[in-house]
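Structure ticket #2291
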Amino acid sequence: MAGHSKWANIKRQKARVDAVKGKVFAKMSREIIVAARLGGPDPAGNFQLRTAIDKAKAAGVPNDNIDRAIAKGAGQLGADDSYEAIRYEGYGPGGVAILIEALTDNRNRTAADLRAAFSKSNGNLGETGCVGWMFDQKGVVTIASPGDEETLLEAAMEGGAESYELLELDEDTPGAEVFCAPNDLEQLDTALKAHRYSVQQSELRWMPSNTVQVDDPNHARLLIKLMDALEDLEDVQSVTANFDLADDLLAALAA
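Resolution: structure written out below.
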């Protein structure tokens, strides 16, 4: 798919230490709370909640945490935290465009944390709209072991897909990401499951319309540091950037 950044692949290759799990659990819980508040506590009738639960389980979040988040979002444990979804935009080293989605109960704290992370890596937090025009939102369904490509294409088209991309989920597991319009995500998810594909995740994702090739090792190192710092912030749910790294540079950074 044109403009598909390697960042999603980079994240799959980067191991997370156990100490980060607490932050991951908090991020997943927030997503579940908001989904349950907006669409009700029944996953069968709430696709956003269903996908949030699937993502949480894939991240290893215990069932007790998931149930508590659903109950909190449904108001069964008293008033839930007033999280609001905010999109932030900024520039990384070399003018790379970065788009951040956050769920926060304190805008001032979130903005201050983001500004500090950007400044430490020679970037800067920008105004709303400064880079958003460089990204398009897509529905993305990730599947494992896609098998025959022609059969996958047939099933994907049936679900309203626009395109797909083959990839490696890990060293031993081939996979594919199937892309669609945001409003078609539930339909695509349902169609692929009906064809017995192993759906790993369904999500809305911002995709860069074009990419900036980063060849400078120092810029690349600062970018990876910045992306890690942003993703480690508890209020941040997702980070997308429009940079691309050559495979040899990526390998050198990983080493």
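Closing remark: Residues 1-5, 15-19 have pLDDT under 50 and may be disordered.
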